[in-house]
Description:
Blueprint: H1 14-32, E1 42-43, H2 44-48, H3 55-58, H4 66-78, H5 80-86, H6 88-117, E2 123-124, H7 129-134, H8 136-142, E3 147-151, E4 155-158, H9 161-171, H10 177-192, H11 198-201, H12 206-220, H13 237-262, H14 275-278, H15 296-302, H16 316-324, H17 329-338, H18 343-352
Antiparallel strand pairs: 1-2, 3-4
Helix pairs in contact: 1-4, 4-9, 5-6, 6-10, 16-17, 17-18
Amino acid sequence: MFTTTGSRGLYKAPLCKSLLLVLNGLTVMLTLLPQYQQLFTHNLQAITQQHQVWRLLCGRLVCLDMKDSFCSSLLIYNFRIFERRFGTRKFASFLLGTWCLSALMDFLLVQAFQFLFDYEVEELPSGLLAPVFSLFVPFYLSIPRMPVTQVLGHIDITNKSLVYIVGLQLLTSSLFMWLLALSGLISGALYHFNVLWLQKILFVPAWVSCIGRYILEPLFSSSQPTNETPLGMGATLDIQRQQRMDLLDQQMLLAQYNEARRNTRPQPQAGLLQWTRLFPSLRHRGQNQPPIQPSPQAQTHQSTQPPLLDNSPVAEEQVARLVEMGFSRIDALEALRASNNDINMATNFLLQH
Length: 353
């Protein structure tokens, strides 16, 4: 998916994992046992006229449509970044608050629709749909937009495009789904901006969080991925963005260097550094060799060129680390100077050239 949520699955997201497993499991069971589906319909008339308040819980948790369940599951999986970023308790408080607010918003919007169009809405789509739509509010405001590719040369595809497409698919799945989407967006905005101190009123108590941590979390926790670094790289969006930008910078520099090597005649490159002159000995990596003294003509020609960064300080510790990897000291010094003492970038150059 074109998201910045990382590829660590449901690690550190036990609540999202429990929602995916439990709610989808109940959807499959109700599909196999259709005689019990009537108990989980979101029937507004039964709630208001027959006072079946329990339908607020049953009708607003489990999806009866497999397509709605699939789309909402994809959205919950993408929104798991909020549970990692803010913690399970705060994420659960957001879902609880928007669930309660959207229950009120559903009735207000239905009454407004009946007043404007003289049409009474009897049932709404079942499932945890309004809180899922409410998560689009922090997704739009908090997740940075990063371009991924372009379609037809003009239409930008970003890291958030697929999430919006899935949300649009869920929005058009039934007749009155737009009402739940509007209810969820309003509820999400009210809770996200803490209107009327809603975050201090609607929240998960600490004792409930402790019970979930010691009883429910061991059942739904995921093991740490094997490719996770000791420092937890990629745990936040900022680190993931920095890693991606560093990778793009390395690929750009490697492409420039390869292009310079393919040219038979040296050409000046744009930018502050000229990679063709900074890496003269990388092809002959091996034992340390003394630098070749240039001819007088070459000295006269190079005197007109801007000076290289030969006098830039290089950490001896980084040079020693590269020498321990098997590179020569001359190559290590040149690579570190060219990469501005970035040992990762210098290592990539030395390995590939």
